[in-house]
């Protein structure tokens, strides 16, 4: 089970903006997560049954809320919400990326709209780059769902225009995608800090982060216009070229693997082996309290296991 999660941020302290952000949160996040993780729809959705055709068999809830091996969470950006229908347009960069059919989607029918983040860096898609809201997303999930299963961030990444640099002397290509690399680095760091002891989402069991995507590929309505990949793909020749972010991510994984092996080696070295103790003192003495070491206790003042 995976859901795209976006923290909803009111555009201002206006109570109507706060209510609008709450409604967006309901439709974007809780409408999907609540039934799976709590066995029921949010109260407001259930109340809507009296005013609309929204209906579901009650026995479905038991099936929907079966225990999960993990809960998947896709995070890309927060969403700023304001009351009122707004201008009915998406950001120009997003409209260009996704096609003219989405350049004016508003019809004035909704009581709220999405605002831009003028101060934020944006991706080629027009999405704001706000890694600090990764922590908000994880905290909201941890606070809302106390019995949350292990979580895997099943998608995270950014689309940026890639510039191909060719080394004529070696006839090799290099793609210095520093902005994508920084995006991934900042979001990974935020996720790790948020779920570490003392973090805002320390109760969450975060198991992994999957980058979207390994290759530049077909991005829904945007087609081939939005390159998210760690590897560049020439769609004419299908030649694949690793980007700087690919090499950075590869090195990061290798370093974490080495750190994990080192930690396991240190733990094995400092934690006494129970079988070794049994052989040292005799299994008949293991329940003897002060007689634990029996007559074979070391008399040189050395700590247990030092002479093994």
How would you characterize the overall build of this protein?
The protein is α/β, with parallel strands linked by helices. The chain has helices spanning 15-38, 43-47, 59-64, 92-98, 132-144, 178-195, 244-270, 274-281, and strands at residues 2-4, 8-10, 71-74, 79-83, 112-115, 151-155, 165-167, 172-174, 206-209, 231-233, 240-242. The protein folds into two domains: 2-264, Glycosidases (TIM Barrel, Alpha-Beta Barrel), CATH 3.20.20; 277-308, no CATH class. The chain contains eight helices and eleven strands. The strands form four sheets. It has a four-stranded parallel β-sheet, covered by helices on one side. A hairpin with a 4-residue loop joins β7 and β8.
Question: What is this entry, summarized?
Answer:
Helix content is 35%, strand content 13%. It is α/β, with parallel strands linked by helices and 308 residues long.
